Amino acid sequence: MSAARTIIEWHTHVYPPEEAAADALAWDGKSGPTWAGRCPMTLENVLDAHHRCGIDVTVFSNAAHYMRGKAEAEELKAIQRWSDYAAEIQHKHNGMLCGFATMLPCGGAAFVKETERAIRELGLKGILIHSSHKGHYPDDDEARPFWELVQDLGVPVFIHPPHVGFGEERVRDYRLASSVGRPADLCLALSRLIVRGILEDFPRATIVASHGGGGICEVIGRLNYAYELQDECYFLGPYTPIKIKHEPGHYLKQMYFDTVSYHPPAAQLVIDTVGADHVLYGSDAPPLTSLKPRAIKLVEGLKVTSDEREKIFWRNAARLLKLDMPNAAR
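The chain above was modelled as a monomer; its predicted structure follows.
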């Protein structure tokens, strides 16, 4: 499918074998649906989708939805296990697969140290964090040492929703946790990162939001007026302490977004809001492997120039990952 163009797949997931084989209940380790022995997030499925769709480079990450069911004492060991497994995969498929570490920004010093090991010692290309984890959000004060390190590491941080997050008590039917709950949690996390001054205080941090930002490009006007109107909006509550020097839209344009929206107008809105230089092709396949051809077709149909389409398909990702691709299609 990509014979005439280069494609870097930004958004696909792998579980370590023991987690893929496990059938822990998905909501909290005690209740909810299971994989029923058919977890799609395996290396074999990633490789199959990669070759069938003619992908040049696949970035793989661990969505780590199972972290919610781990006791706190087990979290660091699970994170370390993934770092080692991801590095093993990346080494074996050097040049074709790029691995991301998975991290808990509010986990404390041991998790910050593991982040450094995963990038500097194991050579992973980026870091996936959840938009929230057990009530913690990445703008919390406990996460500041993580963001300080991220600036020094110079790798992208990919923000992805957990299995369930904001509003979870109302999304357990009709797969609303996936279709509505996850984007809502992501949109909230990105908004908090902006208004709580994370991009102000750590301007060299590179943030890439999954799922087109979960709708933040639609609500950014509301975030802007909440900041701009100041006293006129007294009835909406206080806007203090002010931690940013510019309107929220200024910081939004510092972020990057993938195209995983399943809705062409939504993907187009992201491009129109932040520009094609800050958009990356992704499919979220696996786990939803059948969506990869559809995701490629979505980018092919966007109202952009041919140069902008190249940026979305691979150039922007290659720049963030510091990949040298001399044989890329023109």
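The chain has a mean pLDDT of 93.
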